[in-house]
Amino acid sequence: MAKTFELETLKMRLNDADFRFLDLHQRIQRALRVLILDGALGPGIKLPASRTLAASLGMARDTVENAYVQLQRDGYIVRRGGSGSYVSGTVGAELRGAAGRRVQAHDEGRGQTAAGEGLSRRGRMIFESRGVSDQQVVRAFATGLPETRTFPASTWERLQRQAAKDYRGQVLLHGDPLGSEPLRQAIAAYLNLERGAKASPEQILILSSTRQALFLCAQLLADAGKPILMENPGYFGARKAFESAEARVVPIDVDAQGLRTDLLRADRSGAHCVYVTPSHQYPTGVTLSLERRLELIRWAAENGKWIIEDDYDSEFHYDGLPTACVQGLDKHQRTIYVGTFSKTLYPGLRMGYMVLPPSLVSAFTYARSIMDGHTPQILQLTLASFMEGGHYNSHVRAMRKLYASRRDAMMASVSKHLNGVVTAYRPEGGLQIPCLLAPGWSEENTIRQAAAAGVQLAGLSRLYAGPVKQSGWLLGYAALTDFEIDTAMQRLSRALSQ
Question: Where is the HTH gntR-type domain (predicted)?
Fold first, then answer.
């Protein structure tokens, strides 16, 4: 630690890029503060008189004086009449470099603080889960990504400007936690017409994502440590959302007709709700049969249970019309319907929604107000106009046609380049294809080999709970052209052949 003031050290600090846009007196004040906190200027060191330092730096005395006054107010220096200005001896030792070195020495003696140390029990659990990794760039064959290059951005931008003009300062304020009324009206009209739902705007809660909806369900419908039933295999993000809310996930197996309602009837875990993806089961792609949908509704009504229906990509059904949603069939109002715009529009929009039974609307709205208040109003109002103007339906129709073509291109490419490696199962809809590995092929090894070739494979086994797992991949195709699909498939084939 320096025992005397060194002018050259201060001059070097004044030239730091971080300070270049500050006024002169702020640059001096910040530079001296950094030197004090770094330990370069220790307690009791006398600073030059303001006149002397100003002359040395070639600036006005008032400039240095203003810096000294601020340092004194902040407690970094003390000024004694007739004596001068000194680095304070009462600045907490933990703020100074010497103390930092002592802490470092202590850590070196006992080992650095472990990642996750000092967290709560829930915090450690979340840390150890490693979260959920959302795809930030388009890579073959990442799952869940829509085509964004054809999104009508100019139309969206025009509608956003119009919304800002129409609503003016209102969009800059806090919004209703339930969501913008124009958007809730547009969503209700769409779901009732296209998905056979029975929804009113008063039942709709606008959220930032499906996972936020599922986290709220776990918080409000299951106490810590209590069970939530979930399809097996099932959506990884749902399981993480439930587990982060300290719910215990109990798996219910899926077969060719979807969730096995006989196992649901036989469950004795005491769970109050079940999570399902009936329109397009994730990841198998099967559709829950009408018979089982009705049985699921009866089970919930007779036992006072809740159904969490995640309808994440039912808009993209290519072989005939999709089955009506469970919520529209449920006259007992035991179904919580969850939807998202991340698949139909673009992931960066960060907007989803829930259709809640009337008895749950207030509780979920209060919980949402605590969590993050509301979704940005300008985006909600823009989306409302996008839907009301017919642009949403038009975009979905165009994407449905495009994705059906890309699904077929992916099936053909798998058959051509990976014959004998995997068996691909042609889905009726969705944005990805499930593939099962042939005997003798390791899921872990193939994922590693693919990554080395710049190809991303999502493994199937992690989506299973319990000892029985299927080895394979999910191959996303919606965000890739036919050429990109086949080129990446050739790279994958070469990587696996080695």
Answer: 22-90
Identify whether residues 347 and 206 lie together within a single domain.
Answer: yes
CATH code of the domain containing 29: 1.10.10.10
Give the DSSP H or E segment for 85. strand 84-87
Q: What is the H or E stretch that residue 274 is in?
A: strand 273-276
- Could you give the CA distance from residue 402 to residue 10 in angstroms, rounded to a whole number? 63
- Count of domains for the chain: 3
Q: Which two tokens stand for residue 27?
A: 């640059």
Distance CA(474)–CA(463), nearest Å, equals 11
**What are 308's strand-pairing partners?**
275, 336
What whole-number distance in Å separates Cα of residue 492 and Cα of residue 456?
9
CA dihedral sign, ordered 294, 299, 304, 305: negative
- Dmax over CA atoms of the chain, in Å, equals 94
Token couple for 355 = 């259709």
Bridge partners of residue 307, in order along the sequence: 274, 335
- State the Cα–Cα distance between residues 7 and 51, nearest whole angstrom: 14
Tokens representing 365?
């709205």
Same domain, 203 and 306: yes
User: What strands, in cross-sheet order, belong to the sheet with 248-255?
Assistant: 204-207, 352-355, 335-340, 306-310, 273-276, 227-232, 248-255, 258-259
Strands in 77-80's sheet, in edge-to-edge order, are 46-47, 84-87, 77-80
* Distance separating the N- and C-terminal Cα atoms of the chain: 59
Which of residues 369, 393, 417 is at a domain's end?
Answer: 393
Q: For residue range 163-198, what is the model confidence (pLDDT) as tens digits?
A: 999 988 788 878 889 999 999 999 999 999 999 999
Would residue 411 count as lying in a domain? yes
Query: Which of 362, 355, 310 shows the shortest CA–CA distance to 333?
Result: 355
Specify if 141 maps to a domain. no
User: Is residue 417 helix, strand or coil?
Assistant: helix
Q: What is the CA 1 to chain-centroid distance, rounded?
A: 46
Residue found under tokens 């503060």: 33
Beta bridge partners of 254: 259
Helix ranges, 94-197 (H): 97-110, 121-129, 153-167, 181-194
Burial 188-218 (b: 16+ CB within 10 A, else e): bebbeebbbbbbebebbbbbbbbbbbbbbbb
Pairwise CA distance, residues 375 & 105, whole Å: 47
Residues 431, 146 contacting (CB under 8 angstroms): yes
What range defines the domain where residue 83 resides?
7-95
Region of 246 on the Ramachandran plot (φ > 0 left; ψ -120 to 50 alpha; else beta): left
Stretches in the chain below the pLDDT threshold 70: 1-3, 17, 92-116, 122, 129-137
What is the tens place of the pLDDT at every residue in 124-147?
777 776 666 665 567 889 998 999
- The tally of CA atoms less than 13 A away on the side-chain side of residue 293 is 20
- Give the CATH number, domain containing residue 294: 3.40.640.10
